[in-house]
Amino acid sequence: MPRRPDLDALRGLLLVLMTLTHLPTRLNAYTSQPFGFVSAAEGFVFLSAFLVGGTHVKAWDAPGKLWRGLRRRALKVYAHHVGLLCFAFTFIGAVGWLTHRPAVLNLLDFFHQEPLTALLSSLVLLYCPPLLDILPLYVVLLFLTPFVLTAARHAGWGKVVCLSALVWLWAQLGLKRELYGVLGAVSWLPMKVDHSGAFDLFAWQFLWVLGVWRGSLRARAAGSPASPPRHQWVLAWGVVVVFLLARYEVPGVQLLTRWPVLLDKWTLAPLRLVNFLALALLADRGAPLVYRWLRPRVLELLGSASLPVFSAHLVLCLLSLALINESEAPLDSLEEVAVLAVTFAGMVVVALHHQRRTAALTG
């Protein structure tokens, strides 16, 4: 699949939304779910899977190349994760211990209680502190992707997607908690499900498989993809509008919010999944049009360097948490502006460095 600048720009937008959500400013109240019961995380995971599926589908006939490419990518993401863990456990951990800042202490509470256990279990992705729990998800999913593509080649995408959907359904019934209970009973690690990170791998793998599936189909399709039937457009618009109104508590559609378990983000609950799929259908056709109209070069720059920019944003978000004092009072307006300016300037600098380094290596 050739590089699509509109998808880079979309990834850049999702990175901006995630950064605004993670920073301790008042803006995070508006950026966590701006388009309904969907966050930037769902879009980022699906889009990453879509690009992985489109990039590696041509390696189906060369299994060795497929496995090497995805293993290399997974190890690269893992290296970024280990680097972030080292930064969090050393510098951020020391800041929390010396200054008694509650935001930092709460972030690394298990590490402060059981430092050796936390270190060892974090390296095998069993302990994932808050903010540092999405890259482990990517590592595991990237390692699983060769199995997904190989199974799809031999058994067909229908069976693969159905099996993934069954695992997702089991996740809704508490698969992750059951497995961590067994793990805690049979191992020496005093692990609890609360230490494993917010994202439920067994639920989010379904979104990843859907993304790989759609990306591989798009890459294999000859010519431009066919436009969805009109009734699908109408249905998608209807679903998106209803969920958007419910998200902002417009009278008459608040019925959806009476069952929060069906909208849970971390288990990718059923109604949230429906909301995302409808929004993704609209974005699939709308992203190229919006890109041609706005030409968001900065977003494209950020999206083209998504992994280093994502890692940089986590470093800056961790540092910003150290600014919250003992009383946990929110930052004042000047501090918020400074945090936002430094964070986004740092992300752009990292993206520019990555762009120049890539150009030097390929040129």
TrEMBL record:
Keyword field: Membrane, Transmembrane, Transmembrane helix
Extract the Pfam families matched here: OpgC_C
Q: Per the database entry, which stretches of residues form a coiled coil?
A: none
List membrane-spanning regions: 39-57, 78-98, 118-144, 301-325, 337-354
Q: Which InterPro entries match?
A: UCP028704_OpgC
Top-level taxon: Bacteria
Q: Does the keyword Transmembrane helix apply?
A: yes
Q: Please state what the protein is called.
A: Acyltransferase family protein
Q: Which organism is it from?
A: Myxococcus fulvus
